[in-house]
Amino acid sequence: MLDTSTLSTVIAAKPNRAVVRHLSLHAQHSAIASIVWHELVYGCERLERGRRRSEVEAFLRDVVKPSFRILPYDEAAALWQGTERARQERVGKPRPFVDGQIAAIAHTQDLTLVTANLKDFAHFKGLRVEDWTRER
Fold first, then answer.
1. Of the residues 69, 73, 100, 118, which has the maximum number of CB atoms within 10 A of its CB?
2. How confident is the model over 21-64, as pLDDT tens digits?
3. Residue 28 DSSP SS3
4. Distances (CA, A) of 99 to 13, 63, 104, 121
């Protein structure tokens, strides 16, 4: 499951070649969380009208939306996140709510979360994460 940070590297001024390569190999087996879709749309809507916004709109419409299943934040994800959020608070490592939602969807769907921000997801118990931005 792709995080916002991973997809953002594809539409950067200089796209991350490692991510582009991984996507060419794994796109058909990848998905995004509904929260990631929200972050992408929100980021696009915040851009001023112009060439860059048009490029991002086209990327979302022509690449992201038709290429990736958008997975919902459902009851199972809410249960896992509630439990995990309380555990993190008890050990003094609370994470942002949105990161918890993304982690919960990945975990309850038994998916690996692909993110450029490994540290943001390091404290989620049992969550598999990978970073495609670095060449191996």
1. 100
2. 999 999 899 999 999 999 999 999 999 999 999 999 999 999 99
3. helix
4. 25, 24, 8, 7
Tokens of 30: 């990848």
Domains, the chain, in order of start with CATH, read: 1-136 (3.40.50.1010)
- Which among 98, 97, 101, 103 has a CA at the least distance from the CA of 122? 103
Token reading at 100: 């918890």
pTM tops 0.85, yes or no: yes
Q: For the stretch 22-40, what's the b/e string if a residue is b when 16 or more beta carbons lie within 10 angstroms of its beta carbon? A: bbeeeeeebbbbbbbbebb
Number of H-type helices and E-type strands within the chain: 8, 4
Q: Are 70 and 34 in contact (CB under 8 A)?
A: yes
